[in-house]
Design brief:
Keywords: NAD. With 328 residues, the protein is α/β, with parallel strands linked by helices. It is built from nine helices and 15 strands.
Length: 328
């Protein structure tokens, strides 16, 4: 079977990584690159840097990756759908729910694979965590808490931290516990003089009853990417920046220290840091995209799921504006 002919729109900070991985994945040939801003990172190699999405489509591609600013996602995706090209769009799916819905409808009508690059689903620590949760190792899940904070990225100018970063946590939380958000209450802050928020906290509950808490900002000098899942048998801690997963088990040894044993909660048990294969998330995501195009079932984030994540983020922003809890 011939390799899939891939086109890449956008070779900026994220697009340069897509270019590298697309060249590495078996079954895919990167045949065309387009970016109206040229090739700032020198990743085109022997490929001509085309000026726009129309030129990319005219190169005769089977699949495309869209890695341009969010406000341009809809235009590119609709043109790709009309041309019969399976497409992976970087997250978030779009800058508005209406735009995202038009994208979902276009790919569904064309019978094409439309996906969104919520790459954290492919982080080895989260994939291992979800596998162990499904195996019952933590028992019933009570709470998911995430922390995603670090310095402001100058490359992001068209959306705030909620759509750019919190969308990661909303998607991974719902995926890990296999339940959508039901209600959210959020607060935002605007500290960097920009139009958009640079800090958000989201508190809520999933439809299955799991309590969720997402802390996200662009105001911290300390980069942190943590997901903590607490359940009846202990807690998983995933560090997605390193791909590490640790399990803190509830204690099983009776406590003899009176002032501690009077507390009627759990006690500390064994701590296990797991060893497992750690493959690059972006490569695993591209392999899932390839396999989905070939008709196989994968954990690729569909455009419908990407739209749902955007709806939750919009609900959180509405909550912050109105200081009320919002049903998602």
């Amino acid at each position: 079977m011939a390799n899939l002919r891939a086109g890449l729109l956008g070779v900026g900070m994220m697009g340069r990584h897509h270019a590298r991985v697309l060249r590495e994945v078996e079954g895919i040939d990167l045949v065309a690159i387009a970016d109206p801003g040229g090739d700032p990172h020198g990743v085109a190699g022997n490929l001509e840097v085309l000026p726009d999405i129309d030129a990319l489509i005219n190169a005769g591609i089977d699949i495309a990756v869209v890695a341009v600013p969010t406000r341009f996602h809809e235009d590119a995706a609709l043109k790709l759908a009309a041309a019969g090209v399976h497409t992976l769009v970087e997250k978030p799916i779009a800058d508005t729910l209406d735009a995202g819905q038009r994208m979902v409808d276009a790919f569904a009508a064309a019978g094409l694979v439309g996906a969104v690059g919520h790459i954290e689903r492919f982080n080895p620590a989260l994939q291992e965590m979800r596998r162990r949760i499904e195996a019952g190792e933590v028992g019933a899940v009570y709470q998911v808490a995430t922390r995603r904070q670090g310095p402001f990225p100058a490359r992001i100018a068209d959306v705030g931290v909620a759509k750019d970063l919190a969308s990661h946590d909303v998607d991974l939380t719902a995926w890990v516990v296999q339940s959508d958000y039901d209600t959210v209450f959020a607060q935002t802050a605007f500290k960097s003089g920009r139009e958009y928020e640079d800090m958000i906290t989201i508190t809520g509950r999933t439809k299955s009853g799991v309590i969720v808490n997402n802390i996200v900002n662009w105001l911290s000098p300390m980069k942190e990417r943590l997901t903590v899942v607490t359940g009846e048998k202990g807690a998983f801690v995933a560090d997605t920046s390193t791909g590490d997963l640790t399990f803190y088990a509830n204690g099983t040894i009776p406590l003899e220290w009176e002032s501690v044993s009077s507390f009627r909660g759990v006690s500390e048990g064994d701590v296990t840091r797991y060893a497992f294969a750690k493959r690059e998330p972006l490569r695993v995501e591209h392999e899932a995209f390839r396999d989905a195009v070939l008709g196989h079932h994968t954990d690729l984030v569909t455009m419908e799921q990407g739209l749902r994540t955007l709806a939750v983020v919009e609900a959180a922003l509405d909550s912050a504006r109105t200081s009320t809890a919002v049903v998602c």
